[in-house]
Amino acid sequence: MTDPAAELAPRILAGERRALARAITLVESGRADHRAQATALLERLASAGKQALRIGLSGTPGVGKSTFIESFGMMLVGQGLKVAVLAVDPSSARSGGSILGDKTRMERLSREPNAFIRPSPSQAQLGGVARRTREAVSLCEAAGFDVVLIETVGVGQSETLVAEMTDLFILLMAPAGGDELQGVKRGIMEMADMILVNKADGDLKPAALRTMSDYAGALRLLRKRPQDPEGFPKAVAVSALAEEGLKAAWEDMGALTAWRRENGHFDRRRAEQARHWFETEVREGLLARLQSDPAIRAQMQALGSAVAEGQTAPAAAAAEMLAALQR
């Protein structure tokens, strides 16, 4: 029987798109044998040491994320760069299926030989970000892509998770009034490296410029972060439809990345992220063991019933469960 890791690794390193797609399907699988094969594949590819610029992109529905990604991606491809887009789609809570509409929304980019678009169902993971997205990013890097864009559904905790797997976190916003600006959570603003106000064209351009000014003012009020040079984080007005402001935004992203590399922040952040995902994998593995062991699952259900019926306190039941796991 062929070893998938041995078969796929050289093809991925050669930039073969079909092998990359197969490998991403492998890392997204929840089957134990597929997980073992995916881990072996990632180990083989890690030694290649290839790096891409990882850019997280979030924004509320209707802000124009797909239009922006297509225009931005086409611009990067036009500069001779290879671009991968990992678009996380909402999964159905009932069937586990997903809409997977991003390829149909990015027709021009999907036809580009130097672009790769992969919609991934979120599989009910926290915040809508697929658990294996970070592994898909590693696969895209090994395949020689220069830029990896990770689009989130823009709800819940997804922004926090994407910020933990990217080098730059971009918040895409629509032209808005002051009341809508107040509705933007401070935590999301504090994570953003840049805020791009989209739809700065036609009748909406004056509103977009006002919104950009409002966000710029709000960013100045936030505490200075050690990983930012003077002038960052910043707000910029762009138009994905008219393809205006995209080159300037890309130049800003490049300047920020270059500064962080020169001052040691880039490598330090990558190291912190690797440690974070190691700890996450351990936690998720322990939770999986709780579900897979029949005896442990039965004890969990018994203690859960006792708590629900008021026979024992949640803290006492948890202590008993943890003590049982240590035996």
Which helices and strands appear, and what pairs or packs with what?
Layout: H1 4-13, H2 17-28, H3 32-46, E1 53-58, H4 65-78, E2 83-89, H5 102-105, H6 107-110, E3 115-121, H7 133-142, E4 147-151, H8 158-163, E5 168-173, H9 178-182, H10 186-191, E6 194-197, H11 205-221, E7 234-237, H12 246-262, H13 265-292, H14 294-308, H15 314-326
Helix pairs in contact: 1-2, 1-3, 2-3, 2-7, 13-14, 14-15
Summarize the structure.
With 327 residues, the protein is α/β, with parallel strands linked by helices. It has 15 helices and seven strands.
How is this structure best described in words?
With 327 residues, the protein is of the alpha/beta class. The protein has 15 helices and seven strands. It has helices spanning 4-13, 17-28, 32-46, 65-78, 102-105, 107-110, 133-142, 158-163, 178-182, 186-191, 205-221, 246-262, 265-292, 294-308, 314-326; strands spanning 53-58, 83-89, 115-121, 147-151, 168-173, 194-197, 234-237. Helix 11 links the parallel strand 6 and strand 7. Helix 2 runs antiparallel to helix 7, helix 13 crosses helix 14 (294-308) and helix 14 (294-308) packs antiparallel against helix 15. Residues 91-101 have low confidence and may be disordered.
